[in-house]
Structure formats: C-alpha cells, structure tokens
Amino acid sequence: MNITPAPSRTPLFDLAIAQGAKMTNFAGWEMPLQFTGITAEHNAVRQQCGIFDVSHMGKFLLSGSELLLHLQPLVPSDLTRLQSGSAQYTVLLNAQGGIIDDLIFYYQGETNQGQQQGVMIVNAATKTRDKAWLLGNLESSPVTLQDVSREQILLAVQGAKVLDYLQPLLDLDLSQIKPFGHGTTNLDGTPVFLARTGYTGEDGFEIMTTPALGKQLWSNLIAAGVTPCGLGCRDTLRLEAAMTLYGQDMDEQATPLEAGLGWLVHWDKGDFLGRSRLEQQQATGRPKILVGLEMQGRNIARHGYPVLGDRRVVGVVTSGTLSPTLGKPIALAYVPPEFGKLGLELGVEIRGKIYPATVVKKPFYRSPHKPQLPSV
To answer: What is the chain's mean pLDDT, rounded?
Structure first.
C-alpha cells in the first residue's frame, strides 16, 4: 500500500497558523496560501510591504578552488563576469537544452585560502534532483556542496516601501545594495545573508538566517505593519511581472530561447550543456515561444487551456489569473512564433467555448518603485 508522506513544515509554520494562515500543500510542503486574502496581500506588496516565508526553497552553499569555472559548463550564463557581492539568475540545462531548473547564484568572492564561495537557491520541488545533478557533474572537481535547506530559513520582504520597514532593523545601509547585490548584515549581533532579489516584480530583499532569528524578524516586521503574505499573491505578483514558474511555464521540454529567457544565454562564454541545441534554434528558429496574453472581458485563461489561431489549436496556456493591479485577465502561453506577434488576436478555449485574447508585451506590469537592474 502506497502511503503519501506528510508534507514538510517550515520553522515558521506555527507563527503562520497563529496569524490565521490558510495552508496548502506545495511541492511537499505545507505552506501559507493566504492570510487576509490574495488581493489584499497582493496590493500590500504593490503599495506598502509584505513578507513571505519561502523557507521551502533549496539552499546550497558552494565552495572550492575556481568554483566559477567549474560551474561554467552547467549553465548558459557567464558566471565569470560576477564580482563578489553580485548574483546571476540562470538555468540548469540538460544536453538537449531543456530547462532542468531555474536558480539564483550569489557569488561571495574568494577567501584568504583561495577558495571561491557562493550561495545557490533552487526550487523546492526540484531540490533533491538538482542536488544530485550538481554533485554528479561536479564529482571530479574540488567543489564542495553543503545543503543547508533544513538548517536555514528564507524570508522574502517585498514591496514599494520595503526600505521604510526593513532598514530600522538592520545595520547595513540597504539603499547601497543594488538589484541582485547581496552581503552580510547583523541581526542582534548575528550575521545573516541578505540579497536584493525577489519574485514579485517589486523592490525587495531575501534574507537567509537561522530559524530563531527568522522567527524574530518575521514577528518584528509584522509588528511594524508589514503584511504577512502567502503563495497565492506570490503567484499573481510574479505573473504580472511575467516571471516564469518552473514546472508550469518552463520545464525540460522548453529551452531558454523558447521560454523568453534568451537574455540568460551568453554566447561568448564558451561551451556549456545544451549549447548545440540552442545554436540550432538560433539559426533555424524556435518551434514555440512564450507570449503574454490579455483576455477580453473577465474570462480567465488557466493552465492547460488550449490557445487557438486560424480556427485551430496552436498552443497552450501555462499560467493565467485576474490581475489585481490591472483589473483584467492576463496569461502566459506557448504558441508558434507566427502566432506570437504583438497585437495578434487569438482565442482561448474555456469550458468548451472560445474567448478572444490579444498578444501583448511582457511584462504586463512594471513597478515604478523597483530599482533598475545593473548590467553584469
């Protein structure tokens, strides 16, 4: 008899329950879906500040001689461009150029002993697979990987006024940290890892620390007026910013060029896994591309709904929602390139009926509060 294991819980589970969280099972974790409501939490991030428990994410500490060079063949981005205190959003690829996972690699520089160090944050659902894949590909290298996914928690403090709420609690001048910049700050005399990154399309920081300090920071920020937020509004926020979700908008059947992540491919870096497939697509074209759709009316295109063009099914919706900020339904979908031209009218099949949709520019929403990303 197959027994489904009980979902894991983060160290903040009891605090979330005490604050009225409605929980959901996500990637084997019992996580807050919402507290006061998805729309209210969404608007809090866009207008003020919200805090998310994202401790379910995989957290790896990497170190070794020439760490960046050993990671180079595993991603399409040129990690050797990174300076200490900077980071790169990128993807792991298989030999066919398909996306194994997306991740952020934070480069922490070199120790006095000549060891390069970095932090890698990966998706919860793929953490075990990513770890095995990385260890297998780094087996003959001097790189060590320490999995601190269970020992460390991760908080995302995001919002238009994040500096107003977070700065008083830390000794580091947060205004000096550029997007994708990171460093170490002190919380009650204990060093914590802090980065100006997030998954909301808004300004914000992600903080990795011990469970005890994380609980303290969570409670202090909520006491200061920061809104506790769940995965529900995290999804609507990231979709407005056209940020792709692994396992939904991209997977091993999609290449970075198809998934709208061509900017992650640094062609001048040398060889990497999947390069030949990407070069082929660059030369002959992509069979599909990920486009933004805006639905007419109030009908919402959901994951898996067929997309029609020329009175036939030509693609599929990967993500869709009613945008709280824009007040209209938006979606991401894969279609052939000829059906991805801006302004083109398509159709989405919803419960047996066809509803009109227009191909629009991504992202659907661009925050006026978010600092611009520096070139790496």
So the answer is: 96
Q: Are residues 300 and 312 in the same domain?
A: yes
Per DSSP, 363 falls in state P
Name 146's Cβ contacts closer than 8 Å, sequence gap at least 6: 60, 61, 62, 63
Q: What is the pLDDT, as a whole number, of residue 5? A: 77
Q: What is the DSSP letter of 177?
A: P
In the chain, the number of structural domains is: 3
Residue 268: which CATH number? 3.30.70.1400
Q: What pLDDT score was predicted for residue 190?
A: 86
Sequence-distant (6+) residues with CB within 8 A of 252 are 94, 96, 98, 99, 100
Q: Sign (positive/negative) of CA torsion 67, 70, 74, 80?
A: positive
Give whole-number Cα distances, 370 to 20, 24, 367, in Å: 30, 30, 6
List residues bridging with 23 in a β-sheet.
32
Evaluate if pTM is beyond 0.85. Answer: yes
Rg (CA), the chain: 21
Give the CA dihedral 135, 141, 144, 147, nearest 10 degrees.
-10
The least confident of 153-157, 276-280, 372-376 is 372-376
Mean pLDDT over residues 98-106, rounded?
98
Domain stop point among 172, 206, 240 = 240
At 159, give phi and psi (nearest 5°).
Answer: 155, 165
Does residue 331 fall inside a structural domain? yes
Same domain, 306 and 283: no
Residue 121: domain span: 56-148+255-287
Residue whose entry in the numeric block shows the structure tokens 């998954």: 199
